[in-house]
Amino acid sequence: MAGMNVPMNRSTGQRIGSAAVSAPRVVMSWEDWLTLAAAVVCFLSVAYSIEHARWVRDMPSVFPTSVAGLLIGMAAARIRVTGLLSHPLAIALGLGVVILGVQAYADGATLSERLSDTQARMNEWWIVVRANEISNDNLPFVFLVHSIVYVTAYLAAYSIYRWHTPWVAVLPGGLVILANLGFQRGNDSASFLFFLFGAIVLIARMHLQRNQARWRRQGVDYPEFISLSAIQLTVTVTMALIIAAWLVPLGKQAAAFEGAYDAVVSPFTGHDETFGRLFSNVDSRKGARLHSFGSLLPIKGNVKLGTKTLAEVKSGSPGLVRATSYDTYTGVGWRSTERDSERVDGGALAASPDVAQYQKRNLATLQVTVRDGETSLLTAGMPLGTNKDARIETPGGFRGDIEQLLSRKTLKNGETYNTIGSESVATAQDLVSAGTNYPQWVTDRYLQLPKNLPERVRAEARTLGGATPAYVQAVAIEAYLREFPYSLDVPAAPVGRDAVDWFLFDLKQGYFDFHATAMVVMLRSQGIPARLAVGYVLDPDEVNETTYIVRKDDAYSWVEVFFPTYGWVTFNPTPDRAAGGANSNFAGTATPDTDGILDTGGFDDLFAGDLTEPDVSAAVAALQQDPLEKRELPWTLIYSLLALLAVAAVGLLGSRFAWNFGMGGLEGRARLWAKTQRLAGWAGLGSRPAETPREWSRRVGEAVAVPGEASRLAAAYEEARYGRPEAQRIADDDAASAYRRLRNALWSRVFRRKQDDPAGARTRRRKR
Questions:
Q1: 431 contacts 471 by C-beta, under 8 angstroms
Q2: Which strands make up the sheet holding 374-376, listed edge to edge?
Q3: Considering Cα of 360, then 363, then 364, then 369, what sign does the dihedral take?
Q4: Dihedrals φ, ψ of 333, to 5°?
Q5: Cα–Cα distance for residue pair 57/489, rounded to 1 Å
Q6: What is the pLDDT of residue 614?
Q7: Which residues, 6 or more positions from 669, have their beta carbon under 8 angstroms from its beta carbon?
Q8: Helix, strand or coil for residue 409?
Q9: pLDDT for 404-459, tens place per residue?
Q10: Which helix (H) or strand (E) holds 385?
Q11: 518-529 burial, b if ≥16 CB within 10 A, otherwise e?
């Protein structure tokens, strides 16, 4: 036998090799050690990728957690006890492993102090989860990462040694590696290549071990060291693949794959806001959108912005384009609360006549071409309307102020829409004399502050403005904050610290979210209504005539301050852009392509005599212009047809499998005979005990009125089964022709039998 062809006189190298592979048998076979080595390569590559991604600075190493998961999973698989006993014990051990790994991230000089801090911070995080608030503590995220690493490593080892399948080990690790590559824009190809090596070796090992198990059951002998020969071939092929993969410039091509990556993950991006709320300080190196324009806005640290194009905006001048605003400050971020939602048809003026009290405002029209899916509609200043079917979000109980304008359907690449907004053109003297007679809906909503806001924040605001008019205080606070340097590379506020207090007295530098938040909080502490607005800045360096390119790194936030009679006025406390205040007028008017002067009714009811005829005409024309929309495919019909095709394909494959099941070793006339017997059984003409093939074929042929074909097929089968090949009298073509006619007759009987004998009648007969 092949396994017996081992030379009696082995060389010294062969004897050393035999001793080497026999040595580990104390714990498990040398082949299992090879499998474990491949699994370790896979998971250590994943662990290295996680650490190299640096989602959280100073995150404890996940290498020990990964190795512990593999060893505990291997032990659980090799101890032949039910999973009802092994899995709970493995979970308990894993919890201890994770806690020991995570405690290194906690605060404290001793292990006991760090464990206590870990418990306290996890409890606080759970309170945040239940209260639907924002958390800026990274320890829960570290706990989550270590837990996932342990569970995946444990399940991988368990599946390898108990179920002998590699896919539970390979697929989760591969997803983590690819996610990290996308997160880091392709800068960590080494971990991917090592993972690829380990995965291919592991899959090959599992395939060979399953074959070995089958060979042992069947009594097939095989060479003792076939695994070594197979591993040599596998390693050679794998190294060739790695060399080829190494030549692919993953880093350079990451940007090209970004669109495909976003398309793959887009079905899951609905959970981005929840993730950002619970883990707001996780690094954003991939360049995701900093602001999602949802109901939450955490103030993050160490911000990385991408360069992907999001929109093209046609505007008369550079400046700020608005997406939404936030009213409630939580100490670590912002929330939009208690909003009313209302549907507004495209082309209709969305603003309520309640805004007619506002004076000295300018109409601004934008034309936006979408380059990335979104629902928020961009406006210049306070939203007034759009030519798309939209939904407006207004403060609870007050219809006269639009905080956010949303498309009813997700906007697609290439779609175009127009929006109308209004911006203040009031002078400094106008705003100084505006007074403090604020409407009730403004003071109820836009003076909110956390109860635990540090007193020194209020004191700092008082030193800047004192008892001067609101506009003078706003200008002073804006100028004060513009002295704080602009930087994206700043840490978020530590756990338990107010973000504004951290920014003003410790950090003393930051980016627009810090600057704008600080100004809103300082103004509110002095009784001046203000809110945080977010959107994008139109960069004068990214313009073609009047069309501005909006990218991810154009994200921005600023301050809107309310003045009686004049409404919301924009201020910008961030020093990288121009300041706001009186006559800021950030974005101009872009006149859409349309012919003629249209009816200007409607806008005269909103603004008392401040609007010029050209501005109103352009705004009305923009509202009445049809948006450019992409026709949606009939996905319901397409999915239904695909589902029917899938069902039909499964049914066809299933019926084919059922029809051919058990005939894998049959060929020619024997296969035709077996198919005939199976079909005759379905027709109620199965063979009887001691009935010869010829007798059975005669009975079947008479029953379906093709006796000649049945007898010919039986004779052909007898010749193939009992006769000599050279003595055959019936040709193969004649046998096949006889089978086809007999088959068709039997199928007719099967269907006729089902119609004549319904299932209920058959069931009743079986019961009797």
A1: yes
A2: 339-344, 390-395, 404-411, 374-376
A3: positive
A4: 175, -160
A5: 13
A6: 55
A7: 716, 717, 719, 720, 721, 732, 735
A8: strand
A9: 999 888 888 888 998 888 888 888 999 999 889 999 999 999 999 999 899 999 99
A10: strand 382-386
A11: bbbbbbbbbebb
In the chain, what are the domains? 2-256 (no CATH), 296-624 (3.10.620.30), 639-767 (no CATH)
Residue linked to tokens 């049959």: 666
pLDDT, one tens digit per residue, over 262-276 is: 444 444 444 456 666
CB 316 within 8 A of CB 588: yes
- Residue 534 is which amino acid? V
> How far is 380 from 611, CA to CA, in rounded Å?
16
Tell me the C-alpha distance between 308 and 262, whole Å: 11
Provide the token pair at 356. 């007619």
> How far is 3 from 226, CA to CA, in rounded Å?
9
- Phi first, then psi, for residue 231 (nearest 5°) are -70, -35
Q: What pairs with residue 339 in β-bridges?
A: 395
Q: Rounded to whole angstroms, how far apart are CA atoms 421 and 427?
A: 19
Helices assigned H by DSSP within 28-62: 30-53
Phi, psi of 308 (to 5 degrees): -65, 140
What is the C-alpha to C-alpha distance for residues 116 and 135, in angstroms, rounded to an integer? 19
Structure tokens at 425: 């053109």
Most confident of 387-401, 570-584, 675-689: 387-401
DSSP calls for 190-231:
HHHHHHHHHHHHHHHHHHHHHHHHHHHHHT----TTHHHHHH
Helices assigned H by DSSP within 555-660:
613-624, 635-660
CA distance 34 to 410: 51
Q: In this structure, what token pair is assigned to residue 207?
A: 């395939």
Residue 539 corresponds to which tokens in the numbers above? 């960069």
Please give the C-alpha separations between residue 124 and each of 60, 68, 328, in angstroms, as whole numbers.
21, 28, 21
Question: Phi/psi at 553 (nearest 5 deg)?
Answer: -80, 5
pLDDT, tens digit, 9 for 90 and up, residues 78-120:
777 766 778 888 889 989 999 998 888 888 888 888 898 888 8
Q: How far apart are CA 654 and CA 648, in angstroms?
A: 10
